[in-house]
Amino acid sequence: MPRLRLALGQSNPTVGDLRGNAEQVLAAAREAHAAGADLLALGEMALTGYPIEDLASRPSFLAAATRAVGELATRLDAEGLGELVVIVGHPDGPHAPRELGTSNAPTAIAQNVASVLHRGEVVARYAKHHLPNYSVFDEYRVFIPGDELLVLRIRDIDVALIVCEDLWRDGGPVGRVLEADAGLLVVINASPFERDKDEVRLPLVTRRAVETDTVVAYVNIVGGQDDLVFDGDSVVVDGSGTILARAPQFREHLLVVDVDAEAATDTPLPPAVARVAIASAASAAPDLPALPRDVAELPDDREQIWTALVTGVRDYVEKNGFRSVILGLSGGIDSAVCAAIAADALGADRVHGVSMPSRWSSDHSRSDADDLAERLGLQYSVEPIADLVAPVETQLALDGVAAENLQARIRAIILMGLSNMHGHLVLTTGNKTELAVGYSTIYGDSVGGFAPIKDVPKTLVWELARWRNEHAGSRGETPPIPENSIAKPPSAELRPGQVDQDSLPPYELLDAVLEAYITRHLGKDDIVGLGYDHDLVHRITGLVDRAEWKRRQGAIGPKISGMAFGRDRRLPITYRPTE
Amino acid sequence: MPRLRLALGQSNPTVGDLRGNAEQVLAAAREAHAAGADLLALGEMALTGYPIEDLASRPSFLAAATRAVGELATRLDAEGLGELVVIVGHPDGPHAPRELGTSNAPTAIAQNVASVLHRGEVVARYAKHHLPNYSVFDEYRVFIPGDELLVLRIRDIDVALIVCEDLWRDGGPVGRVLEADAGLLVVINASPFERDKDEVRLPLVTRRAVETDTVVAYVNIVGGQDDLVFDGDSVVVDGSGTILARAPQFREHLLVVDVDAEAATDTPLPPAVARVAIASAASAAPDLPALPRDVAELPDDREQIWTALVTGVRDYVEKNGFRSVILGLSGGIDSAVCAAIAADALGADRVHGVSMPSRWSSDHSRSDADDLAERLGLQYSVEPIADLVAPVETQLALDGVAAENLQARIRAIILMGLSNMHGHLVLTTGNKTELAVGYSTIYGDSVGGFAPIKDVPKTLVWELARWRNEHAGSRGETPPIPENSIAKPPSAELRPGQVDQDSLPPYELLDAVLEAYITRHLGKDDIVGLGYDHDLVHRITGLVDRAEWKRRQGAIGPKISGMAFGRDRRLPITYRPTE
């Protein structure tokens, strides 16, 4: 049985950064070559980053990507890496545009491809067949589908090549892999993290390995790109369903594994399959010492989510060139968790916390913020707001909710002023539950460029806080989050004695109804049918519907759920629900 | 030659408002019946509003729409309108979901259909074949395509029926109309206004009438829905290319026209065509007096745009239940034009203007705002900001841009405070040029729920102001916009003597480069190739790229161009351009 040494490169590309992304490919190729690999595969769009959205319809962008892939092939060869077969994803075009209805709209002119680089040339290319156009994905908008499976014959093994969504759908190229009698199926991916996604992704890879009777090698990118966090978790599974290798989540990593596969045969190819023979120099793999088993363990759910949030914050900050972040510290749980995430992402010296007590602030709001700042070692300052609020309140004669919102907006002015003076990115600390029901002040506590916990429901915020403290405890470190911030009843403290539960149902109940309405897409009657109170359900769903305009103006933040606010959930602002 | 009296109903639906939208259909049916019509067609999704976005994937919403169409048929019959054949658009489902890759995403389970109502029943149904998934449209995301053309035999005329995009594409159902030997082709639409779209839409309708040798009846909805404004402009064109009737833009209207068409034959039907015979009572049409010719003239370009903006503001306000709007009046051209649009939309008594002079404000900023308020008859107040700015500036030691932004943010606090106290919708007055290059203060002058001129470049803002004044003059009314606001050099007045051209290229030049980069989707080198200075092009495109995060948090506003900011143009925030 022939053997092939395969390397999967989990790189962390930045959208548009063709030079930087190509350097990542080169670094992976050097490492793969040093490890004796015959074949290196990187993720979907690893050369341009993912998703490129409407950049796919800009001809100059496509031309630059085409140049970059040619230069990459040349550089690999020039560095003595030309024998290594390298598979890398990028957009390809312009092709003849798909016919569209109106004259002005930019057209889909690109394909989402995997190029195969060898001896300084692009020797083959596969175009993605199935274009996801649901959830956060708009691929049918910007790409033209391919229609042919590619099989590479490398060192007497037939290696089938597909891209991401192609693995998920029963029809199309994956259906032809068995018939083409391939020994290895390489799938390059840009598959964002979602809570519990590993519970569908690994079983899928395993099922396809068994169905197609191949070794399936699944390689995914890592890192944050706007609201998405790619988690890597690249994996190789053989035709019996055994995991041969698995890369750690969220980290750049080169996974190297020896693949033993049936020798290629001269079976006639089924229709819509192209086969390209790649004359490969003798592989070092059979003669090299056996590789150590590289199978990462998946951490538990809460740690996965925490790491996704940390990755999302770190990459938004680094890829956009910020040196530091700033956030308001209220002494409450949301800002405490955001500060801890930011400190884990960037180091505490790059995180500036500001306590902004008002005349209604409790003593503990100040002392809990002090405690948090000390535990984390943040840059920390205190800016009382009373003297800034009073002149506005008096001049405009504000009271009630208007006066409450004013306090939040004065705090926003402080954070934005300090941001403008010092270049900090402002983090906004709202959680998913608040965003859902509009329990926030627009242009107040909602201000900021990035929202670390925007996809984290309040009940999960508490869970994550407890996990992070336990995690610190288990490593002999100081738990970062003050116990009192976790234990005390949540309050916006915009009027004397206020607590969240004056205005909102208990969070356990609220989050359960929101999950039904938002994630499960149920109607009001369906939710009542689950056993929730009729008026409560109508009140909550009404709040959700009416807060759409606020959400539309909110900062982006990392998606961790099956249904995040943002492009994952597209609903009108102007909407009179009657059902 | 048989004759059919056809009515096209330009209704103004609100998304989700099934009862209100059904009332509009009933009102049109009563009027059509009174006019002796045999057939009434309303627009695409006239029963639910358009676009419904992801509501199409909520089963309870689909169930409610299905109930509503049944009830509508029943009510038409109960009111003695059952002989009138009524065509109305709505989403239909749930159907078996289209296969998707991941388990959590809501699936496309609906079709975008036209139902045919007669004698209290839904007697036939056509499902849209071509699903636009470009520009602002996401139909492939939420709909499953149909695959069969519908032909209704009514009073010995074969009436083919399709939906919107189906008319634009060469393949599919429109290609079968000629072969099916239809006499009339009814197209129901939800086609949003775009500047110069009438220059492609009418020629298309004409071309299809000639190609298919039918009378083409094109009916479109009217009114604003979030960022879209539907302009109606329903039209009937015969097989020789002659316009038989045309409805006015932007207004609810019932267009009634007699259609003489070839008698139906028993030509065998081509594949993928269904024919449904509708037993219709004897038509009154042949015996009624001839209808007056109803062919509206299209107003000139600037008036069309102005009316689109007025419609967008009015419908956002009315459909979302606001009683009044508030906006800051700087004495400049942008706020003057927004105030005039709002006054045209709502009446001046529902428009509140606030002058918010600072220590740097010129005398004319105040006097021009006074003048505008008086010309329009606005609700008007003055709130000086110096005493509100000073305490923040001092406490935080802000200077430079941070101090400039502070002034804009204090103004935002004033507008939002008054909004919270009195329930006004805040209008934000930024134009497209500012949004493009980020020449605005986020959480400052950008605050508000609706942005009347967000798709209007600065040079067009001036043009519209001049047009509006001339228009008033030609009707013997006071020109609403102070001449000085049009003539003076634009300035943010955030520091002494500041004018926009300190920071920005001349607006004529800036708008030309932005048009190339944004609307025409050209790369930097292409734009330089048009003859613009290299450094200027790189500076402008760099500003555009870096302002994406601000635009993402901006208010929605009416689309009038071929490429508006918002869902029309989807680009990453995190983006390192190298091309």
Describe the structure.
The structure is a homodimer of 579-residue chains. Chain A is α/β, with parallel strands linked by helices. Chain A has 17 helices and 19 strands. Chain A has a seven-stranded mixed β-sheet. In chain A, a hairpin with a 2-residue loop joins strand 6 (149-154) and strand 7 (157-163). The longest helix of chain A has 23 residues, at 400-422. Chain A is elongated. Chain A starts with a strand and ends in a 27-residue tail after the last helix. The mean pLDDT of chain A is 95. Chains A and B meet through helix 1, helix 2, helix 6, helix 9 and helix 10 of A and helix 1, helix 2, helix 6, helix 9 and helix 10 of B.
- Widest sheet: strand ordering of chain A: 13-12-9-8-7-6-15
Averaged pLDDT of chain A, please?
Answer: 95
Q: Give the beta-strand count of chain A.
A: 19
Strand content of chain A: 15-25%
